[in-house]
Amino acid sequence: MKKLKVLVIATSQKTRGGITSVVNTHMQGYQQEGYDVKWIESHIDRNAVMKLFYFVRSLIQFFFFVPCCDLVHIHVSTFSSAFRKSFYFCLAKIYRKKIIMHLHCSTPSIIYEKRNRSLYRALFKHSDIVLVLSSQWKQYVLEALGVEDNVRVLYNPIFSNPAPSDKYVKKNYILFAGTIDKRKGYHDLIKAFAKIAPEHNDWFLVFAGNGEIAEGMALCDSLGISSNVVFRGWVTGEEKDALFRESKIFCLPSYAEGFPMSVLDAWAYSLPVVCTPVGGILDVAINGENILLFNPGDIDEMSTQLKSLICDEQLRHTISENSHQFSSTIFNVERINHNLLDIYKELLKK
C-alpha cells in the first residue's frame, strides 16, 4: 500500500521549547503507522543570519517536496511565525494540498491584535483544519477571528510516564521549568517563596530554564533568599529527569499559555502542581483535587497554596495521584497521536 506523504513545517529540532517537543512526539506516531514524513525546519532560535538561512533553505526544500506530498501540517505561533508560514501556505494552496494549521500561541493577545487578525483569519479560514490546544483557545479563535467550523482541539501529549526509581531521593524542592521571563511569572514566584522561606528554610526553589537568570538572582539577593534559590539553567536528558524525580512540588505562575508543556511533564512525574488557570489548564483542572490554582500575579494566594503543599504531605500525595492519571487518559501520547492520525485520514478521504 502506498505510504501517505506528509510535510511538517515547524521550527528546528535544535530549538528549545514546546513546539519542538510536540513535533518530536508526533513523529513517533508517524513512524508507528508507517507515514512518510518530512520535517522541514523553517526557523531556528539563533542570530538573524541563521534564521534567514533556515527560512530560505526550508522554502527551497518545500518547493521541491510539496508536489509529491498528500498533506501539509504547519505549526504556527507568533505573528512572525504566521508571516513566515504564509509562504508555505500559499505554495500548498497552489498545488491544492490539504492543509492543517496547528496553533501554539502563548498568549491570546497575539490573535486579538488588530494588525495581526487579517493574516491569522486568512490562514485559518482557508485551511482544511485548524488545531488548537484547548477548548478555551477554540473560543479565542472564534471571538478574535470569527473562525469556528474547521477548528478542532488537540491536546499536547504527555511525553512520558516514568516508573518510580530508587536511584533518586525526594528533596524539598519547589521546581519551576521553562523560559525565565516575565510572562512566565518567575518574579512572582520568587516573591511568593520569600514570604514562606523564613519558616521553611529547609525548602529550596529550583529554576530550570534559560532567560532572565541574572535578574532573578538579583531579586533573590534583594529579598534575602539567595541561599534557598537555585538557578540550574536549561536542562535536558538525565539532568532534567533527575530534577523532576527529586522535586516535591511544581509551580508555574504564568500570565498566559497555550497548554504548558512543563505542567504536562510534572503530571507525568506525579508532581503536585501549583499553577495559574491559563490556556488549556481549565479544561481539566479541579482546584484542590488535581491541582492548586491561583490568579496570575496574586503573590499572596500563590504563597498560601505553596505553603499548604509544603505542610500537608497527604495533600501532595492526593493531588499527585489524581493528576498523574492524565498521562494514561486524555493526554496519553498514544491517544493524542492516534487522534492526530485520525484527522489525517479523515482529510485525505475527502
- In total, the number of strands is 12
Q: Based on CA inertia axes, which overall geometry fits?
A: globular
Q: Which regions have little confidence, pLDDT < 50, spanning 5+ residues? A: none
CATH class of the largest domain: Alpha Beta
H/E series, N to C?
A: EHEHEHEHHEHEEHEHEHEHEEHHH
Strand content: 15-25%
Q: How would you concisely characterize the structure shown here?
A:
With 350 residues, the protein is an alpha/beta fold.
Please describe what this structure looks like.
The chain is α/β, with parallel strands linked by helices and 350 residues long. It folds into 2 domains: 5-156 and 332-349, Glycogen Phosphorylase B (Rossmann fold, 3-Layer(aba) Sandwich); 173-328, Rossmann fold (3-Layer(aba) Sandwich). It contains 13 helices and 12 strands. The protein has helices at residues 18-33, 48-65, 79-94, 109-112, 114-125, 135-145, 186-196, 213-223, 237-246, 261-268, 299-311, 313-324, 333-349, and strands at 5-10, 36-41, 71-76, 98-103, 129-132, 151-153, 173-177, 204-208, 229-231, 249-252, 273-275, 292-293. The strands form 2 sheets. The chain has a 6-stranded parallel β-sheet with strand order 2-1-3-4-5-6, with helices on both faces. Strands 9-8-7-10-11-12 form a 6-stranded parallel β-sheet, sandwiched between helices. It is globular.
